[in-house]
Amino acid sequence: MSSPHQPKVTSLVDLPSSEAKWIKLQKAIYRDARGNERIWEIASRKTTSKSGVDAVAMGNIIYHPSKPPSTILVIQFRPPLNAFTVEWPAGLIDANESAEEAAVRELYEETGYHGKVVSTSPAVAADPGMTNANMKLCMVEIQLKEGDPEPEQHLDEGEEIQRVNVPLAELYDRLEEFAKEGYVVAAKLYHWAAGVQYAIDHPKLFEKVGSKEGA
Amino acid sequence: MSSPHQPKVTSLVDLPSSEAKWIKLQKAIYRDARGNERIWEIASRKTTSKSGVDAVAMGNIIYHPSKPPSTILVIQFRPPLNAFTVEWPAGLIDANESAEEAAVRELYEETGYHGKVVSTSPAVAADPGMTNANMKLCMVEIQLKEGDPEPEQHLDEGEEIQRVNVPLAELYDRLEEFAKEGYVVAAKLYHWAAGVQYAIDHPKLFEKVGSKEGA
């Protein structure tokens, strides 16, 4: 860290729901499949956009004429974990903004790169047993030219986000190393990298029936 | 659904933190990298196990002598989303239980299958901007013999979980279909499947330097 201060949570106190601005607790009463009435506790965001989707993450691929294909990760202090996390760039979707618009905007703010969204996932659930928080994964391509300088970030006041460029071929191993060094890797990024690695290590498991040539 | 009732949230009310049993809101005061004091709102579980890890998910691979390799997914009504979700089997880790012990136990309870844990991820963060909730991904192998009957589940009272066996080669496409049909796919499972699919569709992006044969 080049920062003069090591970020740190200095106090953690219970927060009455009435004082919370960003998140809230709710109690759902629901009828189960047997017709019984039951209760479930839920943590929700107060800020879900009009589209009904909270957040977008940018699964980005950087193409460069003479460097291996890579992806840019962001490292930042996350107070909920009192730790630095390793994640793909991501952010909340603003009101009246599409997931794709938020993806291009947040990628530019957090990394300085201009990207092109090439695919968007359905809205998927962050932690379905605890919260209704959801997100979309946008896959974004970034095309660089020889000699392009590293762009400037455009962070909000108070935001401190470091960028790390990782060759895609090394992504899974690098995430394992980050975890050993005390960083907390985001589950979604980890799962994507683990899926890539599993497909590379076990190609026959994923062969479609009828495409057996070379097996 | 063969169930006589369609599960449904019938009421959703604010829950004072003091009345919540499973989750809570907290306010973190933290010092940022510039030395400024800031505030962040956090949703936490009250039940984190002694190991410091909340949950485990079972990324399972089913091997069968005459059927394509597959994975078992679970479909259940999730009150936070007021919807049926598609997830890998998962559960909270009990006190004094390891992630691997919880993985074998929960897989047996939710699916009836006996599995063998072949790898365990670091603790990764479910939704780092909102919560300290974390989990480990255990990859689990299930070896079936010809003619093995589908095992019985061993669910808790009130649990209603359906199993779906999906060939690995079709996993990504099936998740996209589930989403179109109104199910909510869990982000972690989706990211794993998307990583697999990306590696299959773009093998050259993941080639390590020095392994260019055939490129």
TrEMBL record, chains A, B:
Residues 53-188 form the Nudix hydrolase domain. One of its GO terms (molecular function) is ADP-ribose diphosphatase activity. The keyword Hydrolase applies. The keyword Nucleotide-binding does not apply. CDD domains: NUDIX_ADPRase_Nudt5. Pfam families: NUDIX (PF00293). GO terms for cellular component: nucleus. Keywords: Hydrolase. GO terms for biological process: nucleoside phosphate metabolic process; ribose phosphate metabolic process. SUPFAM superfamilies: Nudix (SSF55811). The lineage of its organism: Eukaryota, Fungi, Dikarya, Ascomycota, Pezizomycotina. PANTHER family: ADP-RIBOSE DIPHOSPHATASE, UDP/ADP-SUGAR PYROPHOSPHATASE. It comes from Didymosphaeria variabile. This is Nudix hydrolase domain-containing protein.
